[in-house]
UniProtKB/TrEMBL annotation:
Residues 139-234 form the ATP-dependent DNA ligase family profile domain. Residues 1-39 are annotated as: Disordered. GO terms for molecular function: ligase activity. It catalyses: ATP + (deoxyribonucleotide)n-3'-hydroxyl + 5'-phospho-(deoxyribonucleotide)m = (deoxyribonucleotide)n+m + AMP + diphosphate. Pfam families: DNA_ligase_A_C, DNA_ligase_A_M. Its EC number is 6.5.1.1. It comes from Rhizobium sullae (Rhizobium hedysari). Belongs to the ATP-dependent DNA ligase family. This is DNA ligase (ATP). CDD domains: Adenylation_DNA_ligase_LigD_LigC, OBF_DNA_ligase_LigD.
Amino acid sequence: MMKPPRSKPLLRDTEAPIRSRPRGKRNPAQPQLPFDPMPERVEPALAQLKSHPPKGSEWSWELKWDGYRLAVHIEPRGIRILTRGGHDWTHRFPAIEQAARALGSATMIIDGEAVVLDEEGRPDFGLLQQSLGASGKQTGNRASDAVLYAFDLIYLDGHDLRGVEYRSRRHLLEDTLNVANNDEAGSIRLSETLDAEPTVLLEHICRLGLEGIVGKHLDRPYRSGRTGDWVKVKCVQSEAFFIVGYERSTASPAAFGSLVLAAYRGADLVHVGSVGTGFRQAEIIRLRKMLDTLRWKRKQPPLPYSGSADVIWVQPTLIAEIEFRAWSTDGKLRHPSYKGLRERQDNADVFRLG
């Protein structure tokens, strides 16, 4: 009987041995994790605005939430809730902080959006802004009724997930939140994926009066900035503009008729129109008091202005989120409506004209 041939060695003696990749240094703050140290902060992935959703089965779709982008860091030393600009707002979202503690002992970074829901269960940016007292000065206000809708997982138990494709990060996020599904964690909820053809989905979302949809490429890693891996399609346009003045009110000396808005063109401010709708009465009074402390004291207005309205000019400090339908041929907002104030700490980007 013949002997079977000897198998060849996988590595010859003359070949260099295979070595595993060097293990990362232990993080003294996380001695139990010998792998990837938790990043202090991750620049968020941002969605590119599209007029129509891209086609293809490689996209996952969910609701576009109307709130503040947050990263929730769950660490051995405690909870940190960071804004898009990297500011620590843990104290401003106590319910989300409590829900993060209820997720257990795992270390993780959850990417999501904080919203306040109205009586019909829809996100309302104005209600969130009221809760936070977004005035640029009232930075101690708390949004105790805010809910975080989680839509990505950047880090989990010693593993930096930024190099992992989205479909796997999504599965890990779902598993993590499902395991911790309890009443205490109710202020951190999963942003559900929407299983429908995106154009039909968008039509339905718009009919409900919601903001729009976000698509994420299933095969892409987590990359900071607007890379095209994430896209957003809005029902109506919504951008941030400087408030540079107000027109007087004919109804009340303590109010205003409309707010004068500006955007950037290069390094200069450009007038883009006025907004006179979308205000609650209490917000009008509050805004007027704030604007009167910011009065422009120079003879020339803060930007070129060719209108005929009697404008009280103010320093371009306050940033308003404005919803509008389109741009007119002379570069003004069509059918604008006020949504609320943005805070610089939220890294609010004032709109830039092309």
